[in-house]
Fold these 4 entries.
Entry 1:
Amino acid sequence: ISLQQNASTINIVRPEFISTTLDWWPLNTRAWGNSSVIHADLTHPNLIAAAAGLSPLFIRVGGSQADNAIYNMTRSTSTTSVEETNRFAKACGENPQLCLTMERWKEVLKFAQDAGAKIVFTLAYIRHTRDESGQNDQQDWDSTNARQLLQYTAQSEYGNTVFGFELGNEVTHKGKVENITRLVEAYAELRHIIDETWSSNEISEHKPQILGPASTGQSLTTELLKALRKQVDIATYHKYHGGGKSEKLVKYAKSTSIIQHPNNFHGISSTVNKYMDKPEVWVGEGAMAYNSGRQNVTDSFIGSFWFTNLLAAMSKSRPHTVYCRQALVGGYYELISHETMEAMPDYWISYLWKNLVGTKAIGPIISPHREDSPGKYTFGCCEGPGYDTLLIHAFCAKGESSNPMFVMTNFDMESSFNLNITVGTQITKYVLTGKGGSRNSRSVVLTDKLLTIENGRLPDIVGENTDDLLIALPPASIAFVIVHGFQVDECIPPDAAVTVIAPTVYTPSVLLELQHQFATSDGRNDVPYLASESKMNYPAPFQEVQRLLLLQVIAAAVSLAFFF
């Protein structure tokens, strides 16, 4: 396979691409314990270190119970009477698990600031549209309680920690809200409150964004964005890939069909591009499975194959820019165990990604022996799309360099793969496996080193530097590989000095050599293809051969022009 020196940028994500969530949840439920946003120990050194390790990031405070939450800011304001303040204080006393006090809100904001995070907060909508009988969606949104929270936030010493607000959580899911016009008017009112509250010069530069509609599914998201349009600055929706209570999830997690492809995100991307003036969309809440995930699946290394490829696929689907993983702590999809405060496997995927992978996804990855490679975004081997166990994605490496890097997953439990980089002078590789080589492990090993957070200290992440450009991917492994000494034009920082490199007449490539397979040539066009004992051959189609030959001719012409 080859990645051209003039590879193009497929998409650019935010530096906060991998973000996370804090959720509202009842106390002492099995999957959550005391990890709700109201009860989580935000002073625990491991939790602070874990969040800081993913900085910069967004922490979205929301979830299913966000629409029932109450904010007890304890004092009246210029627009809130004493009676109204007392009403919310009384409601908090009746349901403290859904009550955000001024003191707790300050703790949440301080936690975010200490971790280098920004908060996105989901305001209650449904609760404040109920009539006296408790029926939803019966009256215009009462913004009184939200206004109290926003006014306190604007004047807080941590006010600049808030990035934005959403209004309601999955409000049209299962018909909870049907009056879309009323919802649009509520978003317009929220815009007015934010503009008014952050109007002074001292705080106006920190004025929060409005995000939404925090919906589920393409059809509901399309309906809401069509109505909201300019009322939201950034589109958000929620994406899960199965149910935590489903017995099918265990089998699904072990199947290659769980691996996501960029086209799976293109429907939402098209909707956002159509209805927003400045298209940008986040997955504001997502994991492999809803219903709190599933124990021994979404909290084990087997889930990391799904997670790694999902991040790679989504990062290539413009204008997706942020993925908020459910949840930082709580549920069986948590990044940090609410029971032990130890990091789960997907945390280490997130941590390495944040430290190694840049914001640019690049491509295409050309494979003349695989005309069925999925959209040239990803290289897959060796059974065909939907069945491949080896997937490779290309990015610019993080930092001030022009180096490309590859994120690779070997989902096969029995077979290893050898990959030989044919360009560059050195590689740095980080190979992750489950403890004992098991996909079911809840611990992760990096080159024989068990990764742990010890007393609030993250481990040093040290890759293996080698002049031998061979990458050995053991069974059930995930690798991050940086190629040094090979410059990709799109990865050169804008302000970097231009370095002229004499082009070669051969296409720079990553050559794949499979175990029990070997690279060869068909003797006619000198284009490599894969041959094996099982005769799984993928000869280059004629059009691909023409394109590669044309690239070689162009490179040769440029080379002659350079020297003469």
Note: Residues 245 and 291 are 7 Å apart (CA to CA).
Entry 2:
Amino acid sequence: VESSGGGRSQVGVDIPFGTNNILVDAETTKGKLAHVVVYARSSLHEATTPVSIPIFDWKGVVSVTFWDQDLDPEQLGGNITWDEPFSISLVTHYVVYFATHEAGHPGRSQVSDEIEEGTYETPVGPEHYHAPYNQIVIYTKSAFVEQTTPGFVNISDTDSSVRDLIFVDRDLDELELGGTILWQKPDDPYLVTEYVVYLATGRAGVGRSQVNSDAWQGYLPYGTNHVFFPPELALGTMIEVIVYTKSTLVEQTTPMAIPLVDNLATVENVTFEDIDQDLDMLGGWITWELPPNIAQVTHYYIYLAADRGAGFGGSRRQELVTVHDAKRVFLPLQTPQSEYDWFLIYSKSALVEQTTPASIFALDFCQNIPHLENNTVKPEQGVQMFDASYFQNSLLMTFRQVTTDGFDLEMISLRAGHYYAMVADTDNVPYITATGIRNMNFAVGGSGCKIQGIAIVSCFTKVYHFSGCGMAAGGVRNYRLFVFVVGYEDNLATLGHSYIDFFVASSYFLYGPELRERTRERMVVGFMPSHSGYVWVGIANRESGAADWIGLSAPEYTGRNDS
């Protein structure tokens, strides 16, 4: 303890004269000993004044650092570094271990080969599982022995996974994705330099596909907490959203992951009943059932379209927009149908409108009405009709029971509005206008032979009976029946009318008369009289469309049949 030898403890045994050194065993406890003293000894006695030197106790590594740059839990990666010892004159190597205790025992595992003095770091490769060790210890080694009391540092395992990962699909089509992936920074963010985002086909990033961003070739710098990808991304077999953090050393291998939920929000069970009773006009309630999940729906857009596959920008015409929780919407009356045969209903989110809508056939109430070009008025056998013309608002079906008193007209109105009909002598036709028809100008007969502005609904077949017309028989006069329907929305100035030109025959026939054969030399006339009596058959010229019967008498006919 003292340089004079006080508090001494002998090292080994007495050393014979001629020897000038002695080995002190490694790991000898120093305690309070501070000097080495050497006494000379004769055969008589030991010297009382020794030679002494102070003991210099060499210390090894005193400062060890390790920053775990592998951002996965239970995995290490990075450089172990240490400071140069106070004195290195006797140090030849450094030996680094993972250990269960700061003293380096009872369990330890060497990190690398012995490291020559002059190097003060050694790498730990990424994804190194450190269990069960929780310490890093470093021993200095001399040519004589390895240190028994190492420098050490606690292992601080960095876990830098993102928190609160969220993805809400705002593409409302089935098997399509679109929206923003959001997250919060890790609790331990200090070594994070970038984020990497993937969609994956399996758990823990199996079959992953990177969600690219414009910056960093798909890597997002620390400080960013979201990445957006546009709609209509095919879902395919993707089942997870995964986000990795990345340090300057390595990307995580155990990311944060959440299930990938495809948000489908198509309306169901769409219905439409047209209550607009005009041809080519629609109106009425469109109804539907809400999608199972409307959390991302902001509106519904309703279109008339040429076909069910009329996609975004296709042959379609927007009609209505309504809110996310609406179950029906009213299509205004008098909505033109034109070439559009389908209603398409698209759900829309804050991001985008669907591309695969729900649909229903746009059935016009008047859809079963025959097209005008395929129908002409059908006169009853024996009715002498020689011309007919149609305009947009009426469809004349049959013309029968024509007598001097009146007739029956079967027709269909193609517009809801007001109905006008009258009979006039053909001599007055050039003077009759649309206004004249409405005012019954030049009309023959009494009130029973006129229809002046009665309300009419469309698309229903109806028979109108005309009587009290007082028409001449035998083709003495020709007549025109005017039919004029004015729709509620029609412009009278541009509206045309339909008509039938006819004359009243002098006899009734159950069948005929008709010409079965006609040549220069002969003709065959077929007919079936409606009652017994006399019949005359003759041939005469027509002037101005009227048969010239005046002046002819029965004896002048060439044939007689009293059967």
Note: The CA atoms of residues 172 and 381 lie 63 Å apart.
Entry 3:
Amino acid sequence: TAAASFFVTVVISLSTTMAFAPWFSRVVCCCLAGASVAFQGAVVFLPAAKPSLRKPLGVVLKSTLMTEVLPPAEKVVEAVQKCGSSVTVGDVATAGGFDVSYARRQLVTLAASVPSTSVKVTQAGELVYAFPEDLRSALARASRLAAVREKWNNSKGVLLTAARTAFGVVLFVSLAVVFATLFAIVVSGSASSSSSDSDNRSSSRGGSSYGGPPSYGGYGGGYGMGFYPSDFFNMFFYRPYYGPPAAYSYDDGSQSSRQRSRRRQRGEREDTENGGMGIPSAIFSLVFGDGDPNYDFENRALAAVAEEARANGGVLTADQLAPYLDPPEYPLEEEEKNNNDEVLVDESWVLPALTKLNGRPDVAADGQLVYVFDDLLTTASRGGGGGGNIMPSQRITRTSEPLLEEVVPFSRAKPWQLGVASFFGGLNLVGAWAVGSYLAEVPPGFKFTGLLGFTQSIFPAIALYALSFVAVPLLRAVPLRINNDKIKKRNDNRRAWHRALRQGKADKKIERAQRFRAQPLKTINLNKDIVYDTNQSTDDTALNDFDQRLEKTPQQQQQQQQKKKAWDWDAVN
């Protein structure tokens, strides 16, 4: 199995190299990846002097994984870098759109993975994680698994592009094999007819000119057509490092020839700007699509809700959450209303986001339902460490734009690319059907030689590829259309709630929510609010706290207490 996997990888890579000389470096990466897959399960041999120390590769990898702590998720590292070197759980949950519990666990894992991390404790009991500035490099130095993941992230794009290209190249390889086989069958049939007219010459050779047995008209055998795979690729692909095929080259140095050359170069740049969507990539895109652009929509929605909660003192209404989540249709004006002439709706669709952000529902004095997010009201990444409270806006804060999902396209390839890919896919299916019909007439157990023998051995793979090329796009077209209709419906609902919010229909509810329990966003001062630091001894921490208390005059302490009382009084009223 390992040898077969390696052989297939090499064949695909060589085919890609013949057609795309500029892709040579990517093909080399693909070859190396295939070689690593091919030798999975191989045995790691230590020096021959100690044969007893020979261990299977799986045992070595298992022991390595068990002795090392798994690094945190890549998206968590990105969220920490986005916030800065010092973060709280609320900062990371807001920046990455994570479940608060998940963000807390991942921060602990990241702190354990990077030895130079310090954990600080504020006077209010808040935890601040202080990471090094070069967090990604520090994590790679401390964790071998993180270093491997970093290398994979750097090469992932190249390898995936090479895989997409290889899938498209396989179509042309299949076409070459199928139609070369059909040509050989036609030539073989002609040779058999001519040999039947000259029995003496046929009997003297013991068979046909193609080496097959007399009873089957010379199936298989070597053929001398002079066909080379590179000739087939030269018919459809331009190799810019080597120029067009000689048979089609007409660069005579004239102005028109130079214009054609510039047009070719512009086309290559456009393909590069569009993500390298050449014909092979377009073939992959036609069959499998280009992925879901909404794969991270849930994280983006939670991040938007967290930002909105911080901007509104940690208290939100369902109307403010609707443009980010999955609300129902906005009620019509004639539907049931409460005593304040406000529309009543079922707000159960809020609960998933409320649970993930560790929020809680609460009831205001007038019976209005509000949602409180206490864990998001502390930050260490704002204000440059200056500390203080960021007060919620005194006016009604309205969402600037709703968060919309993107309709998933069937393919991002250009229409002409899809047309070319469809044509070659259909042509391959017809050719495979013709070869399959011919092979079906062969008696069971008979083996061809030469090209026909090679085609006979790999025909199941050719037939599977040809059928999948047509079946997979058809099978995913209907579910994709249904899913896009649902996306449009959800986007329409978000727009309707956002329009009502902009028109002021929920202003009274938002005002009552602000009076209920809106709190300022607490910014931690890393120089004054810290009472304990894991990088400092207990004595140093106590002395720093004592010095900070001495710096405050009685007048400053009294002013601070008055400000706190004034804020508490406004919140109650």
Note: The CA atoms of residues 537 and 543 lie 10 Å apart.
Entry 4:
Amino acid sequence: MAYQIKSIRYQNSPRKILLQNINGPCPLLAAANALLLRGVITLSSECVRNGVASTDDVVNMLANRALIRSQQSSSTASSLEKTDKEGDDKNDDETNKPSNHEYHLNEVLSILPTLQHGMDVNPQFTSPQSIEYTHNLAAFDLLGVELVHGWVLDPQDLETCAVVEMKSYNELIELVIGGDERRREVVRLEEWKVEKEEELMRLIDDSNKCDKEGNDDSEVKSKNDVADETKVDSKAQTKTDENEGEKEQTETDEGVEVISNDADDTKSSTSEQISNTVSLDQQQAIEQEIADIGLKIEHASLQISRADVANAFLTSTSHQLTYHGLEQLHAHIGEDAVHVFFRNNHFGTITKHNGILYLLATDLGYANTPEIVWEKLDSIDGNTEYVNEYFEKPSPRAELAPAAGPTIDPALLLAQRSQAENDYQLAMAMSRGEASVPASSSQHASNNSDEEEGKLIEAAKEMSLRTYHGENDATVAVDVDNSPIPSTSSSAHNSQLDSYHQMALAFQRQEEQLNHESEQLARQLQALDQQEVQMQRQRQQRNDTNRRRQQPGRPTEETKAGCTIS
């Protein structure tokens, strides 16, 4: 990945910032821009000359920054430890307390290249700096850059605060997912509860039916007993002629029959009592199950309500910025301090100037627009405005003119950088050859003078041909510093150096000419596009004018053609 470089002024000092070609997270870019604006790190001269920096360039620059801060932290910790040992009133626990920057340097340096693809951030909703600590944040700490956000909950929202509390974003997501699961569980529990209630009703109905049948049987038996007694008495009175033996035998048989009927009644009553006891136990067990199901439904409903509150908060603040969060950012960020700002899985560079928050505009589309540098952060709905490097609203342009130069893909600039650097190094090597010419006029140097001159001429021809054909990797290996240059005569040697110098200048002029031609071509294409847009507008205006000329009720040609004349 490559980043184009833009030159701006910040706090009356020239600064270089990196622009982003593809819209994405890229915390690496945000951290680098924050440190570049502070002036604590600088891009290499090679990157500045070519106007582009690769990911390796940025990682190496930040790695040097991390190494320096780690060394400073180690020296500070050593001095503090020495001071604590000399003092008698120091606490041993404070002496052994690790510094905030004492991290495993190799681990942090291995994290830096991965930051170009983004990083996981788990914010909490209590303050701008409340973020769950991870290994990625260790890299920010070691670089000396603070990560902040504006997704802060208003403490006046008591209902939401009671649910959110100190939870992080991931914990709220788990709460919402758990609420969905509890909602499905409540449906199952309610169905189960209905089944148990129906079972209980059937058991009660069966018990009542059995009791009713038992009562009916008792009444029937009592009536039968009374009828039997009446029948026996009438028989005893009417059969006076029967002998005593038969009468006694009859009475004995009837007594046995009555005893037998009493035993059957006792057995039936006992079985009914056992049956009633079993039914009562079953009824109590089912009632207890229904009560337990009700408690589970109540507990799940409470979790569902909490999940609904959390989901409502996440939905209403889906832009991940609140007005209370803006207030907290104003209070937390100092004047002209620079931090990394996290919002919507995007990382930007934020500062405060004259009490107003600004975000650094790093879109590649503003590469050739010097009047757009900062974006105001004073609204949560994206309704904002852009300002220049002096935090002033730019005046509108007098005319819609093409940009100062074409916006070239940073990857293409990075590919062209090797060719430009080779040309630059060749020119510098030829210039250094003036001071590295040996004063001795050895025979060996005299014999090799023609050979070295031929090599340089062939190298120049080859480079010129490659540049003419547009090859990007046009590199020529010319060992000028180690090659013996003849010095048979000062005039001949000076003329040779002049030819080298002229050759280098010719290469430089040719490259500038090619760049100039590419810029002119880009401007011509932009002019053609503007002319085409203007012609389209003119055609649209003519069509609108023709339509307005047609009066209401006035028949058009098509209408006239469709009329029937009688």
Note: The CA atoms of residues 232 and 238 lie 10 Å apart.
